[in-house]
């Protein structure tokens, strides 16, 4: 009799634990879903969104940096997703700028541009450095035999992704001699979220230590600067806060990539991309 009662209680305890575990798992799934929603844009899409004029729907005609910035974003995005790595440092190849990009995983990312980039990196022998890949993917290479690695219509393809995600729309604009497809911003909430994230990072939530920053936010700062769209994100700030934001960003971006990239828990690819842009 007593034994039966104890078994019943033990069974009740097991059942209660199962319910608690299911509730806990459900909460974690909901948190994960929330995180995915916040992270649903790739770094390339975020950079393009920052560079687009809201109403006009195109980037500045004078901006000749954004193409290479987007390619740098692809390398960082692949690194953060565990698809590529930098070769291990050696005495001969200690600097980030000298280390080759290697494929770690060929599994599909769900993004056509990223998957194309993985195929290019895998098919190249010997491997290339970060700086070389940025030049190859933009088509700015001196070697005519490597022009097949150029990724074409990147801005247009990224804009179409943002249209599908309900952030941009598609229109036609007439510029006297030609018609151009433009992509005005329709979901300003998403762009405001990006801008606020950058504002918080360099103002209210300033850490003054890049290795304690969220890696995607640090990457966005580096890429926005390299793509010449960082000032767009800070243009709405009052003069005093604008100066503070720009000065703190400059202090961060003036750090030595080789020193920072070799620190514990550093995201090597972010610093390698910054090093490549510093050298170019």
From TrEMBL:
Homooligomer. Residues 1-34 are annotated as: Disordered. Gene3D superfamilies: yeast vps74-n-term truncation variant domain like. GO terms for cellular component: cytosol; Golgi cisterna membrane; Golgi membrane; trans-Golgi network. GO terms for molecular function: phosphatidylinositol-4-phosphate binding. Phosphatidylinositol-4-phosphate-binding protein that may play a role in the process of vesicle budding at the Golgi and anterograde transport to the plasma membrane. InterPro entries: GPP34-like, GPP34-like_sf. One of its GO terms (biological process) is Golgi organization. Residues 21-33 have a biased composition (Acidic residues). Keywords: Golgi apparatus, Lipid-binding, Membrane. Pfam families: GPP34. Residues 10-20 have a biased composition (Basic and acidic residues). Belongs to the GOLPH3/VPS74 family. It is a peripheral membrane protein. This is Golgi phosphoprotein 3-like. PANTHER family: GOLGI PHOSPHOPROTEIN 3-LIKE, TRANS-GOLGI PROTEIN GMX33. It is found in: Golgi apparatus, Golgi stack membrane; Golgi apparatus, trans-Golgi network membrane.
């Amino acid at each position: 009799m007593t034994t039966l009662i104890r078994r019943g209680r033990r069974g009740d305890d097991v059942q209660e634990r199962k319910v608690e575990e299911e509730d806990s798992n459900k909460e974690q799934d909901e948190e994960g879903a929330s995180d995915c929603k916040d992270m649903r844009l790739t770094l390339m899409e975020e950079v393009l969104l920052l560079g687009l004029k809201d109403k006009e729907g195109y980037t500045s005609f004078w901006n000749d940096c954004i193409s290479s910035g987007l390619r740098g974003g692809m390398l960082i995005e692949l690194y953060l997703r565990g698809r590529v790595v930098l070769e291990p440092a050696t005495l001969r190849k200690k600097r980030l700028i000298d280390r080759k990009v290697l494929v770690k995983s060929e599994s599909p990312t769900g993004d056509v541009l990223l998957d194309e980039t993985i195929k290019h990196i895998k098919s190249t022998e010997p491997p290339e450095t970060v700086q070389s890949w940025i030049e190859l993917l933009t088509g700015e290479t001196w070697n005519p035999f490597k022009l097949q690695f150029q990724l074409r219509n990147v801005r247009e393809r990224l804009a179409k992704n943002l249209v599908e995600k309900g952030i941009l729309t598609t229109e036609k604009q007439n510029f006297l001699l030609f018609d151009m497809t433009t992509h005005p911003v329709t979901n300003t909430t998403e762009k405001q979220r990006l801008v606020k994230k950058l504002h918080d990072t360099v103002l209210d939530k300033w850490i003054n230590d890049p290795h304690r920053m969220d890696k995607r936010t640090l990457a966005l700062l580096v890429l926005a600067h390299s793509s010449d769209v960082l000032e767009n994100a800070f243009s709405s700030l009052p003069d005093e806060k604008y100066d503070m934001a720009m000065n703190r960003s400059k202090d961060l971006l003036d750090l030595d990539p080789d020193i920072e990239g070799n620190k514990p828990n550093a995201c090597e690819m972010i610093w390698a991309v910054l090093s490549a842009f510093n050298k170019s």
